[in-house]
Amino acid sequence: MAEGRLSFLHLPRLCLRKLAWLGLIAYFVGGLVFVGVRHLVLPGVPAYRSEVAQLLSRSIGLPVDIKSLSADWTGLHPRLQLGGLSIKDAAGEEAMTLDRVDAEVAWSSLLLLRLRLHRLEIDSPELSIRRQADGQIFVAGLKVNTGGERGGFAEWLLDQRQIVIRNARLEWSDALRQADTLVLDKLDFRLENSGAHHRFGLRAQPPVKLAATLDVRGDLRGRDPARLDEWRGEFYAGLDYADLGAWRQWVDYPLAADGAGGLRAWLEFAGGRISGITADFALRDARARLATGLDDIPLASAAGRLRYREENGVIEASGKRLSLQARDGMTVAPTDFFLRLQEKRGSTPAQGEFIANQLDLGALSRLAGRLPLDETFRKRLAELGPVGSVAPLNVKWSGEAGQLATYEVDARFIRLGIEPLGAWPGFSGLSGRIEGTERGGRFTLSGQDASIALPQIFAEPRLALAELAAEGSWSHPEGVLEVSLASVNFANRDARGTASGRYRASPDTPGDIDLQARLSEADGTAVWRYMPSVVNKAARDWLQTSLTGGRAMDTRLTLKGNLARFPFRNPRDGTFRVTAKVADGQLDYAPGWPKIEGVSGELIFEGAGMTVKARRGRIFGVDLKDVTAVLPDFETDDVLTIRGTALGPTQDFLRFITDSPVADMINRFTDPFRAEGKGSLDLQLVLPLHKLTESKVRGDFQFAHNQLQFDPAMPVLTEASGRVGFTESLLTVKNGTARIFGDPVSVTGGSRPDGSVLLNAQGTLSVLALRRELDLPLLDHLSGSAPWKGTIAVQKRGGVEFVLDSNLQGVVSSLPDPLNKSAAAILPFRFEMLAAAAANGAPPGDTLKLAAGSFFQAQFQRRHEAGRTLVVRGGMALNEPVRLADKGVLVVATADKLDADAWRKALAGTSPGVEADKAAGDSDSAFPLSGLNLRAGELRMLGQRLNDVSLRAVMEEGGWQARLTSKEATGDFVWREQGRGRLQARFKQLALGTAGKDDKDGSDSPRPDEERLSELPGLDISADSFVLRGHSLGKLDLKAVNRGEMWRLENFSIANPDGTLTGNGVWRPGAREETRLNFKLDVVSVEKMLTRLGYPEAVRRGKAVMEGDVVWHGSPIALHMPTLGGKMHVDVESGQFTQLDPGVGRLLGVLNLQALPRRITLDFRDVFSQGFAFDRISGSIQMNNGLLRTDDLELFGPAARVFMNGEADAVRETQNLRVKVQPTLSESIAVGSAIATTGAINPALGLAAYLVQKALRDPVEKLFSFEYAVTGAWSDPKVEKLASRPPLAPQ
Predict the structure, then answer these.
(1) Superkingdom of this entry's organism (predicted)?
(2) Cα 157 from Cα 163, distance rounded (Å)
(3) Which of 473, 630, 805, 925 gives the lowest tally of CB atoms within 10 Å of its CB?
(4) Which of 459, 450, 484 is nearest to 543 (CA)?
């Protein structure tokens, strides 16, 4: 070979010279061709415009038309510039028009004898691409061949070396997907073709609502565009922001996904299908579905990289820095993972592998149904329900569907939790490590606030653990699961203890167990929780419900043997023994029976039986001793027998009966009993746990020197002694003795053959003893004593009947008629109470009947609920048949005389005021009066006497409606109960008080014993004719309302033809009670008004106005003179006082000066003989604490002027006044002088004398004025003349 090379290097010079000439010739020929083409051919190219168009038509297979053509030379390739290029479709219609196209012709066109471009550049085209419903694609109206036929535009496009499109606008219409038209602006496109290798890049601006700038690239390999199933390659798409859901109209994702955010995706395909996908994403408000048939994953945010690849039956999925936050609050910290699943291949089973740097098992469990996992793995994951975190984790497995053949696990975990599965225990809140295979493994556990579930051992499998430390292992010797607990130390709120043991499963039996446990301390209420599940359920339930308190100390458990032979009645079969010492325990031994508290004793389970030995205990306040509870066999004998003795308060024994089934056995006979004292009881209970209704009881109770009360409404029995025996069906009372109100009474009785209970009682009762025991004012009117007999019957079907009879002979009554009687008189009295059994859950109730003689009857139906007794319906009758109202109580009475005030006094309590009002309110609610029908010849009520009375009142919703007819008052009234109540009354006539002066009993005067008024209702009262103490005052109108804490008198008026009295005021009740009243009296005729008030001939003529305001401490219905205050002003005009006795007119008499002339020196009898006439009386009066004072009371008349000052005491009815009487003489003298001098002297002198008289302020009148002191009582005033005032000194 070396020789060959040398021979080539040493070619003859001639050959080398020829080669050089050939090269030189080729160079010049090429140069000449280049120059010829550039300067000769290219300038003539425009003339070949039609030929070029035909050449392009042949190349793309479609008609082409060119409006302008030019050519130049750039680099190594000639360039054609085409203007107005249009391409027509097969029908000859114009499909695409390009204003300007630059094309560089490839030299290969000469070899291929067809136009082939080295570079094609199109600027700012508007391109429309559409896909029809049949899948055919058209680019600018030109059909793209996708049906397997060769040729066409697409093939020509891939044959060009390079195609560049700048600043284009692209519209994509897809009729096949029925999508909206997608418009891409500012589109730049570059396509490079090199044989079967094709690369492209595209950048465009989609609509803003869809995405930011779109970046799409591709690297593809394939030759025939009509056979895409033979292509392979990779696509890339990048969007800094995109709405994935909005793009679903035009793009099929390999995963169903929605959301918004940034996205970069790489898509691999081959053989016509997607083989892999990789995505970097940062999304928000997203939704993803990783495979068909899986549920969506709703995400608030998601970021990281996901990779999915499927090839040859192998699925691989991985993630890098994957973080998720689901909309339900679930969060996944950045995680790297790898998952590989391989289908079964021949005899090789399906395999799987999962590796993770850290794994949130709770999130994985919640996402399991949404991840493309093997169905077996997904099912097993759902069964285990793992929580906590594992870091790191390496799991491998293999096996057929539904069963693992092999597995291998190595993991460290924190706060791990799984549900129990098969013989595997479950747990939560545990940290530690687990490593092993299907052949066996080991585990270490520790935790705080953890729990462990042992369904194979305990019926309550999940045990809460405040502390836990355990070591154990598992294995499969001979294919059987065996779990060993080397040591377990635990503590929780129930107990602290240790355990160890072994459990070996068996396919045909519950397995073998060898378990030792010890609780150093434990809550007695939790003992049942630590009983193995092999203990009979009835026993566990009994322990759970019965041990309700106390501490269990030194509890030990030994369980060993084949569990199929539990409870090991034969000691050779195994051992089961539980012992616990109980202190301060509570034993609720059977439902419905009172608990035993303070139990100290021992609880023993051994074999099939249970024994409770209580050395001491108590039920309520009763001390127990030597109590035993024995259950011989949990499975064959479920009868619990309890025996014991007790000593303690009798009331607690009664409570024991009331709170136990014994109460129903004796028809709850003792429920209302109340007792003080002590007694003793021997008791035996036989309780079938499954049929407690068949329980048996036998008891014997003895008591002495007790106090006993059968019912709260009945009297107390003192020094009660006796013996009561009872079983589930029999009750006996023997040797019952007691005292009632100090008098002896005997009681005997018991059960009757029909199942009822009857007690007989008899004794004598004195009124004096009743008065000592009962605070009833009614008893103050009774004295003496009377014998009585009574029975108490308790029916078998429920209900109690109590009957008491007495003739009351020996009892003296000073009560008002008709209950007034002597000691010898007989007045039959009967009291009955029937308490029927409640039915259908209705509240209990009873019926009361009372009868006194033949004139009084009463009957009430009552209901007991919420600690109160309410009268549902009833009736009371006096001299009438008793009638029951449909609702409430109806009272019917007929009497010649009825003194309601006397009965009110007889029945009144000793606590008036607010408490009495409260008691009245309670009484109203418990005694709902609904109707009243009263007829009386004479009725005394509230100090008033009414004759021929007929009163009918009916309770209606919200109040009362009544009609009253009598000689004194006739009208209708309505009472409403809103707030403090409101009374509306319309009277045709209303007369109050007694006419004349002969009312000796004072019925119209305030009573000192009346209750203090605490409130008044709202009032709306009118009377067409109002008469007060026999004086007709005209029409009355009164309106008052309650506002806040005040009672306001809005309007008060009494009007008649002679005058009108109007006013308003306010009353403030309470500790600082006060009434204020503003009034105005307009009198048209003083003479007639005084005549109406009972003072005829006191004043003649005259009219007056009196107004003012007064205030006193007290209610508005009782004027309290000692605290009266205020002021008033009086103006009276044109009247004359007549001869009036001052004792009758009281203050009015002070103004009558008729008596004064008899005590003065001068004689004015011609002036005062017929009474004192006046032109005007005016002045003001100030009042303070009942003392009336005036400083400016003036009386002007033609005969004299009177000036009055001083005070009058309205409480003592006394006066201390100064009265100045000034006869009107000066003016007469001066006028007379003027007249006299007119003719005799000089008229000017007379006029001067008159003017001097006035200028000197009537010196003549003052000269004759007198001053008097008026003192003494109003009924007998004392008038004393005072010394005359000296004449005024001259000025």
Answers:
(1) Bacteria
(2) 8
(3) 925
(4) 459
Give the C-alpha separation, 336 to 304, whole Å. 10
- Confidence at residue 774, expressed as pLDDT on a 0 to 100 scale: 66
Q: Over the chain, what is the mean pLDDT? A: 79
Q: Which helix (H) or strand (E) holds 1247?
A: helix 1243-1255
**Token reading at 661:** 């089934």
How many alpha carbons fall within 13 Å on the CB side of residue 659?
15
- Each residue's pLDDT tens digit, 852-890: 888 888 888 888 777 677 888 998 888 899 998 888 889
Residue among 1050, 976, 1041, 987 nearest 1015 (CA): 1041
Residue 987: DSSP 8-state: E
Query: Nearest 5°: phi and psi at 1265?
Result: -80, 150
Are 476 and 439 in contact by the 8 Å Cβ rule? The answer is yes
Residue 1168's identity, in one-letter code, is F
Residue 8's H or E segment, with its range, is: helix 2-9
Reported pTM: 0.47
Highest mean pLDDT among 504-508, 541-545, 554-558: 554-558
Rg (CA), the chain: 61
Average pLDDT of the residues in 238-261: 81
Joined tokens for residue 686: 């036989």
Most confident of 112-126, 363-377, 516-530, 1210-1224: 1210-1224
The pLDDT assigned to 1241 comes to 39
Confidence of residue 909 (pLDDT cuts 50, 70, 90): very low
Closest residue by Cα to residue 1168 from 1183, 1184, 1157: 1157
Query: Three-state SS for 1289?
Result: coil
Contact 365, 381 (CB under 8 A): yes
C-alpha span between 316 and 326 (Å, rounded) = 24
Residues 547-567 have pLDDT tens digits of 788 887 888 888 888 877 877
The amino acid present at 18, given as its one-letter code, is K
Kindly give, in sequence order, each residue whose CB lies less than 8 Å from that of residue 617, ignoring residues fewer than 6 positions away: 585, 587, 596, 597, 598, 599, 600, 601, 623, 624, 627
CA-to-CA separations, 123 to 120, 127, 162, 164, 167, in angstroms, rounded: 10, 11, 14, 8, 6
Three-state DSSP class for residue 113: coil
